[in-house]
Description:
alpha+beta
Amino acid sequence: MSLPVTGRRRLTSALDRYVAAEFARIFFVTIAGFPVLVFVIDLVDNLRKYTERKLAVKAVLLSYWYWIPDTLFMVLPAAVLFATVFSIGTFTRYSEITAAKASGMSFYRFVAPIFLMATFATGLGLLFSELAPPANSQRLKLLAGKSEFRETVRYNFAFANDLGRVYRIYALDTQKQRIDKVEIEERGSAKRPGLLIAADTGFWKRGRGWMLQKGQLHVLPNQSIDLAFGFDSILDRRLKETPDELRTTEREPSEMTFAELTRFIRALERSGADVNLLKVERMLKIAIPVTCIVIALFGAPLATSSQRGGAAFGVAISLATTVLFLVLIQLTKAIGGKGLMEPELAAWMPNMLVGLIAVVLLFRVRT
Length: 367
């Protein structure tokens, strides 16, 4: 009966709690301070633009509130790195790691609570990746300003809805609630034929949908058959987006959750569009949170060398690694977006490179 109890105590010893608490203290201070710094920099850069748009102070403050999930999503790896470097640096300077080794505890076992906390940070990152997109959409609406500063006409654009349809529209006028020269493509399946609708104009009917006028409807049961019908008007109930929604329908990946971005990519693929960059952005929604674990593995052995450099050395390591990681992510987007590498593989490349270095550093640590 005594062996299991002893095992449980070893897993949750006072030393484990002390190491985890030291890490958590620095981690939560960092994730509380970084967003404030980002918001201040953004406010200084965009204050004139906000004034020109006549944005109310309440709207600006609320926009920063909605920006918190996305900001935390991006700063979590940096917060983990700072917490790892500074906590282990402190343990090294005060010879706490040396004392633990003298009592028979290896370096890997000593820092195990830090890796556990980094795993917790990964879970937070995955949570924020889903909370951030709807919040980002609300933020962009708030920052759009008053209606007189928004363009009411949009030209030559395309989008895909959740039903797998692709719309190509030459002109949209939100004031007249009208679209001109619209093409609608719906790929067929084993259960239903494909559709292609081309219309000269369309008018928004509130509560009903878009009334398309003067066009043709093509039913495509297979690649060799095309049944065409002319029409004076047809009501498309599947096109549910309002004129205002169509004007802003070109959403950024940061405004879509992983599932929404997946549906959007599939719809664009059916229309033959290049989706490599979107695939990289989608995979980064998972890769960036996992960076928290990789960066902890990287920072733990590196921090043991900060005994002489002190706090300045820890800051230098953290900032340099953060900048390097940001550069690698931008490089990743460029390589994956151009199709020089599989987009999903490109998104994981920074983690793979830093992870490889982390493994080498961990093997070189004296245990």
